[in-house]
Known about the structure:
α6 crosses α14. The two termini are 13 Å apart. The chain is of the alpha/beta class. It has two domains: 4-151, 2-Layer Sandwich (Nucleotidyltransferase, domain 5); 201-401, Nucleotidyltransferase, domain 5, CATH 3.30.420.40. It has helices at residues 64-76, 111-120, 125-141, 161-164, 170-176, 185-199, 253-257, 276-283, 286-291, 307-330, 342-347, 349-358, 368-373, 401-413; strands at 4-10, 14-21, 28-35, 43-48, 51-56, 90-97, 107-108, 146-151, 208-213, 217-223, 226-230, 337-341, 381-383, 393-397. The longest helix is centred in the C-terminal third of the chain and has 24 residues, at 307-330. Strands 5-4-3-2-1-6-8-7 form an eight-stranded mixed beta sheet, sandwiched between helices. It has a six-stranded mixed beta sheet with strand order 11-10-9-12-14-13, sandwiched between helices. The structure holds adenosine-5'-diphosphate, acetylphosphate and magnesium ion.
Amino acid sequence: MGKYILAVNAGSSSVKVTFYTFENPPQAIADAQVSGITAPPPTLKYQRGPVKIKEELKEKLNTPQDAFKYILQRCFNDPELSEVASDRDLAYVCHRVVHGGDYQDAVEINDETLHHLEDLEDLAPLHNFSALEIVRLCKKELPSVTSITYFDSAFHQTLPDYVRTYPINQQTAKAHGLRKYGFHGISYSFILRSVTQFLGKPQEQTNLIAMHIGSGASMCAIKEGKSIDTSMGLTPLAGLPGATRSGDIDPSLVFHYTSEAGKLSPGSTKEMHISTAEEILNKQSGWKALTGTTDFSQIAVENFPSESHKLAFDILVDRMLGYIGNYFVKLGGHVDAIVFAGGIGEKSALLRRTLAEKCKCLGVAINAEANVKGPEDKETVKDITQGSSKGPRVLICQTNEQFEMAYHTVESRL
Ligand SMILES: Nc1ncnc2c1ncn2[C@@H]1O[C@H](COP(=O)(O)OP(=O)(O)O)[C@@H](O)[C@H]1O
Ligand SMILES: CC(=O)OP(=O)(O)O
Ligand SMILES: [Mg+2]
């Protein structure tokens, strides 16, 4: 058996992979990311030790599977990365799968588990399809390597019934698995562990309001180390708006949008059944629809480039504020920390400052300088609370879904 772990985080427009040593804790030896798969040309970011490479790719990579194959070959053939030259050097491949249905934990892939996950594809065609394509590819091309799937939804198996249940016909709901699942759980698991270590407090005594704000954005109320509510739902469309996702809307809006919206999307294939409405709300909405850009760093600037940029920013702030208030009350006001994570949460000082100002009534106060400076490269958790604050701590956590998967793989198998 090989000695290294490959962790794969496949999205609809990007694929991120990291190679780790099989030790506790795992050490990253190389990290590669292909983005822009849906908006060519694709770009590669590759980091191996101190060497950082960024380049536009000439290759046509139309799907996340193409991108994964490309990354794998590039790493296997890199003479400077001789530790991993073929499947013989790998012990495990960990895959981030967004929707895990009722799975409470990670699962090893075999014919039975793969079939079960394929059945779930219908619940999350936009998210699970790419990840499972890569799982199938690994089964074929790296047959000696065990694949393990980690689920974003697993962290939220602790949601109380009254949170996870939609008030609809319960027979129909049960027959079709229609309930709140919640996502970004691999990230929340990383955040919970890192923040409790930082605070020096046991997980089962820690209450957090955690926010994973990236292209997809969600929030989570964690009580005594367990998820008690989260903003995403049956699919990652619910809750906060994202780069291309609408977030919560009145469900009736779908019927008013256009009569075409109920039909199957032109992008649907034999394996992937999605309606035009689902595609519009997932891929053509959010701040892209308001401003034309999916890059929040162009929106969250001191002098907004346009009224629509300001509107996009204000909408995100308003929806986040709503969840902070909601979760603060659900946690009975006992909040150890409010945690910012995800590409935007970690990098946008303006978003953090704006929210902190609006949360003054909850005792929230941040240190302006620490907020602007943000965390150092290797600083997993940074405290930006104002020294004199008696309210909840305000933390930035540089979350890492690949690490979380590798960590659990080592923990459970070493
Ligand atoms: N300085 C910044 N200010 C605001 N947003 C930023 C900044 N840097 C990066 N981002 C945004 O972070 C988002 C990507 O976050 P990430 O968590 O990596 O998303 P995903 O994993 O869903 O692709 C993008 O919208 C990007 O524009
Ligand atoms: C669940 C989800 O929305 O994932 P991402 O933020 O990676 O798109
Ligand atoms: Mg992400």
